[in-house]
Design a protein that fits this description.
Elements (H helix, E strand, L loop, with lengths): L7 E4 H8 L7 E6 L3 H14 L18 E3 L5 E5 L7 H7 L1 E5 L2 E5 L2 H11 L2 H15 L3
Parallel strand pairs: 2-4
Antiparallel strand pairs: 1-2, 3-4, 5-6
């Protein structure tokens, strides 16, 4: 994604892990800016990666109802065009910037991660929200 200059944020369990501590997860969720120009950059990044794109078009990456999955659990990557309760532009402006193997990575910030986890309402997400709140009260 970085080489294609695509705007993306690591969200979901990996964002929780970034802000708290490691836990098991079945996939990595990557939220991409659904703007058409960015969707084209994400498409380019997926082509370079060698993703199986037979049933996907660049326009699909802007569709809020399309989640593109690569791989199988526990090594699956989900490309998301939307995250409940958040807008990409606001989240992008608040993003956390980390590094992984000398590459800059963009992660959903703490407050937005907490808000998204609460908005989801799923059991695991509510557990994650409690973990996020606990770490804020008792920083490591």
């Amino acid at each position: 994604m970085n080489e294609a200059d695509a705007r993306y944020l690591i969200v979901g369990a990996y964002a929780v892990i970034y802000h708290t501590e490691p836990r098991y997860t079945k996939d990595m969720d990557i939220w991409t800016d659904p703007a058409r120009d960015n969707a084209a950059k994400v498409w380019d990044a997926l082509v370079r990666f060698g993703a199986p794109l037979a049933d996907l078009t660049p326009a699909d990456l802007s569709d809020p109802d399309v989640v593109f999955q690569i791989g199988i659990e526990p090594n699956r990557v989900d490309i998301l065009p939307a995250v409940e309760g958040l807008t990409f532009q606001e989240a992008w402006e608040r993003r956390a910037i980390g590094t992984y193997e000398d590459q800059e990575i963009f992660v959903l910030d703490y407050e937005s991660t907490l808000r998204a986890k609460k908005a989801s309402g799923r059991e695991q997400d509510l557990l994650d929200a409690r973990r996020l709140e606990a770490i804020k009260k008792n920083p490591v």
